[in-house]
Amino acid sequence: MTILGYPKTLAWANFGWPKASVPTTYGGTHVDCHIETDINATYSTTFDSASGQNILKNVKVTVKINSLRSWVLKGVPTSVDQAAILKHEQGHYNIAGITATDIENALTNLQNSTVKDLLNDAKTEVSDWTAAGQTEEDTYDGSVADGGTDHGNDITQQSAWNSKIAAASSLNDLP
Q1: Which residues contact 64 (CB under 8 A, 6 or more apart)?
Q2: pLDDT-based confidence at 155, cuts 50/70/90?
Q3: DSSP-assigned letter for residue 12
Q4: Among 12, 43, 90, 151, who pairs with 77 as Cys (CB 3.0-4.6 Å)?
Protein backbone atom coordinates (compact mmCIF):
# COMPACT_ATOMS: atom_id res chain seq x y z
CA MET A 1 0.00 0.00 0.00
CA THR A 2 1.57 3.23 -1.15
CA ILE A 3 0.78 6.90 -1.58
CA LEU A 4 3.00 8.62 -4.13
CA GLY A 5 3.41 12.40 -4.47
CA TYR A 6 2.25 13.28 -0.97
CA PRO A 7 3.38 14.93 1.19
CA LYS A 8 4.99 17.52 -1.03
CA THR A 9 5.97 21.13 -0.41
CA LEU A 10 4.87 23.36 -3.25
CA ALA A 11 7.02 25.98 -4.93
CA TRP A 12 6.07 28.52 -7.57
CA ALA A 13 7.93 26.39 -10.14
CA ASN A 14 5.12 23.81 -9.77
CA PHE A 15 2.76 26.27 -11.49
CA GLY A 16 4.72 26.52 -14.75
CA TRP A 17 5.80 29.72 -16.47
CA PRO A 18 3.92 32.74 -15.09
CA LYS A 19 1.07 33.85 -17.33
CA ALA A 20 0.35 37.39 -18.51
CA SER A 21 -3.39 36.91 -17.92
CA VAL A 22 -5.85 34.39 -16.52
CA PRO A 23 -6.11 31.48 -18.98
CA THR A 24 -9.33 31.56 -20.98
CA THR A 25 -9.91 27.88 -20.17
CA TYR A 26 -10.09 28.62 -16.44
CA GLY A 27 -13.66 28.75 -15.22
CA GLY A 28 -13.01 29.66 -11.59
CA THR A 29 -13.09 32.93 -9.71
CA HIS A 30 -9.56 33.08 -8.30
CA VAL A 31 -7.51 35.57 -10.29
CA ASP A 32 -3.87 35.24 -9.21
CA CYS A 33 -3.16 31.50 -9.45
CA HIS A 34 -4.77 28.09 -9.52
CA ILE A 35 -3.57 24.59 -8.71
CA GLU A 36 -5.24 21.53 -10.15
CA THR A 37 -4.46 18.13 -8.70
CA ASP A 38 -5.13 14.65 -10.00
CA ILE A 39 -5.54 11.53 -7.90
CA ASN A 40 -5.09 8.12 -9.48
CA ALA A 41 -5.41 4.69 -7.87
CA THR A 42 -4.00 1.46 -9.24
CA TYR A 43 -4.31 -2.04 -7.79
CA SER A 44 -4.73 -5.68 -8.64
CA THR A 45 -6.79 -8.45 -7.10
CA THR A 46 -5.96 -11.64 -5.29
CA PHE A 47 -7.86 -14.30 -3.41
CA ASP A 48 -7.23 -14.31 0.33
CA SER A 49 -7.61 -17.92 1.44
CA ALA A 50 -7.69 -16.96 5.13
CA SER A 51 -10.85 -14.87 4.72
CA GLY A 52 -12.24 -16.66 1.67
CA GLN A 53 -12.62 -13.27 -0.04
CA ASN A 54 -11.11 -11.42 -2.96
CA ILE A 55 -9.02 -8.45 -1.87
CA LEU A 56 -6.94 -5.74 -3.50
CA LYS A 57 -3.16 -5.91 -3.55
CA ASN A 58 -0.43 -3.58 -4.80
CA VAL A 59 -2.61 -0.57 -4.00
CA LYS A 60 -0.94 2.66 -5.14
CA VAL A 61 -2.59 6.05 -4.92
CA THR A 62 -0.82 8.91 -6.69
CA VAL A 63 -1.33 12.63 -6.14
CA LYS A 64 0.13 14.92 -8.77
CA ILE A 65 -0.15 18.46 -10.00
CA ASN A 66 -1.96 18.79 -13.31
CA SER A 67 0.56 21.08 -14.98
CA LEU A 68 -1.74 21.78 -17.92
CA ARG A 69 -4.41 23.24 -15.66
CA SER A 70 -2.25 24.91 -12.97
CA TRP A 71 -1.04 28.47 -13.44
CA VAL A 72 0.18 31.65 -11.77
CA LEU A 73 0.10 35.22 -13.03
CA LYS A 74 3.30 37.17 -13.58
CA GLY A 75 4.25 39.14 -10.49
CA VAL A 76 2.48 36.87 -7.98
CA PRO A 77 5.60 34.85 -7.03
CA THR A 78 7.39 38.10 -6.11
CA SER A 79 4.46 39.98 -4.56
CA VAL A 80 4.25 40.98 -0.91
CA ASP A 81 1.49 38.38 -0.40
CA GLN A 82 3.26 35.58 -2.29
CA ALA A 83 3.95 33.46 0.81
CA ALA A 84 0.31 33.61 1.93
CA ILE A 85 -0.92 32.82 -1.59
CA LEU A 86 1.42 29.84 -1.92
CA LYS A 87 0.38 28.61 1.57
CA HIS A 88 -3.26 28.73 0.45
CA GLU A 89 -2.42 26.70 -2.67
CA GLN A 90 -0.47 24.26 -0.48
CA GLY A 91 -3.74 23.75 1.40
CA HIS A 92 -5.40 22.60 -1.81
CA TYR A 93 -2.60 20.13 -2.45
CA ASN A 94 -2.74 18.85 1.12
CA ILE A 95 -6.51 18.32 0.90
CA ALA A 96 -5.82 16.19 -2.20
CA GLY A 97 -3.19 14.28 -0.20
CA ILE A 98 -5.61 13.68 2.65
CA THR A 99 -8.15 12.48 0.09
CA ALA A 100 -5.55 10.08 -1.33
CA THR A 101 -4.95 8.74 2.17
CA ASP A 102 -8.66 8.11 2.60
CA ILE A 103 -8.78 6.36 -0.78
CA GLU A 104 -5.84 4.16 0.14
CA ASN A 105 -7.41 3.24 3.48
CA ALA A 106 -10.74 2.42 1.84
CA LEU A 107 -9.15 0.28 -0.87
CA THR A 108 -6.94 -1.55 1.61
CA ASN A 109 -10.00 -2.64 3.60
CA LEU A 110 -12.16 -3.81 0.69
CA GLN A 111 -13.07 -7.43 0.21
CA ASN A 112 -15.77 -9.19 -1.76
CA SER A 113 -16.72 -12.71 -2.80
CA THR A 114 -16.38 -11.90 -6.52
CA VAL A 115 -13.63 -10.05 -8.37
CA LYS A 116 -16.23 -8.16 -10.42
CA ASP A 117 -17.97 -6.83 -7.31
CA LEU A 118 -14.63 -6.03 -5.66
CA LEU A 119 -13.56 -3.96 -8.68
CA ASN A 120 -16.92 -2.18 -8.75
CA ASP A 121 -16.57 -1.44 -5.02
CA ALA A 122 -13.06 -0.07 -5.60
CA LYS A 123 -14.24 2.18 -8.41
CA THR A 124 -17.06 3.48 -6.21
CA GLU A 125 -14.71 4.17 -3.28
CA VAL A 126 -12.30 6.13 -5.49
CA SER A 127 -15.14 8.12 -7.04
CA ASP A 128 -16.87 8.85 -3.73
CA TRP A 129 -13.69 9.89 -1.91
CA THR A 130 -12.55 12.05 -4.84
CA ALA A 131 -15.93 13.81 -4.85
CA ALA A 132 -15.73 14.31 -1.09
CA GLY A 133 -12.23 15.80 -1.47
CA GLN A 134 -13.45 18.18 -4.17
CA THR A 135 -16.34 19.27 -1.94
CA GLU A 136 -13.82 19.97 0.84
CA GLU A 137 -11.67 22.02 -1.55
CA ASP A 138 -14.72 23.97 -2.72
CA THR A 139 -15.61 24.74 0.89
CA TYR A 140 -11.99 25.73 1.58
CA ASP A 141 -12.11 28.32 -1.20
CA GLY A 142 -15.70 29.36 -0.55
CA SER A 143 -17.21 32.34 1.18
CA VAL A 144 -16.44 33.12 4.79
CA ALA A 145 -20.18 32.93 5.55
CA ASP A 146 -20.06 29.28 4.45
CA GLY A 147 -16.91 28.51 6.47
CA GLY A 148 -14.42 29.08 3.66
CA THR A 149 -11.38 31.30 3.27
CA ASP A 150 -12.63 33.42 0.34
CA HIS A 151 -9.70 32.04 -1.70
CA GLY A 152 -7.34 32.71 1.20
CA ASN A 153 -8.32 36.38 1.48
CA ASP A 154 -9.74 36.03 5.00
CA ILE A 155 -6.70 35.72 7.26
CA THR A 156 -8.64 34.39 10.25
CA GLN A 157 -10.40 31.69 8.26
CA GLN A 158 -7.18 30.78 6.43
CA SER A 159 -5.42 30.32 9.77
CA ALA A 160 -8.23 28.09 11.02
CA TRP A 161 -8.09 26.01 7.84
CA ASN A 162 -4.29 25.74 8.05
CA SER A 163 -4.70 24.20 11.51
CA LYS A 164 -7.50 21.91 10.35
CA ILE A 165 -5.49 20.68 7.38
CA ALA A 166 -2.33 20.19 9.46
CA ALA A 167 -4.25 18.10 12.01
CA ALA A 168 -5.81 15.95 9.30
CA SER A 169 -2.42 15.48 7.62
CA SER A 170 -0.89 14.20 10.83
CA LEU A 171 -3.41 11.39 11.31
CA ASN A 172 -1.01 9.12 9.43
CA ASP A 173 1.50 9.53 12.25
CA LEU A 174 -0.89 8.13 14.85
CA PRO A 175 -0.66 4.44 15.78
Answers
A1: 5, 37, 38, 40
A2: very high
A3: G
A4: 12
Q: Are 35 and 70 in contact (CB under 8 A)?
A: yes
Handedness of CA 142, 146, 148, 153 (dihedral sign): positive
Across the strands, what pairs with 6? none
In this prediction, residue 173 carries a pLDDT of 31
Question: What is the chain's alpha carbon radius of gyration, rounded to the nearest angstrom?
Answer: 18
| Phi/psi at 136 (5° precision) | -65, -40
Cβ distance 91 to 162 under 8 Å? yes
Beta bridge partners of residue 73, listed in sequence order: 19
pLDDT digits (tens, 9 = 90+) for 126-139: 999 999 889 889 99
Phi, psi at residue 174, to the nearest 5°?
A: -80, 150
Domain borders along the chain are: 2-173
**How large is the average pLDDT for residues 45-62?**
98
Mean pLDDT of 154-164: 93
Averaged pLDDT, 54-60: 98
User: What type of residue sits at position 32?
Assistant: D
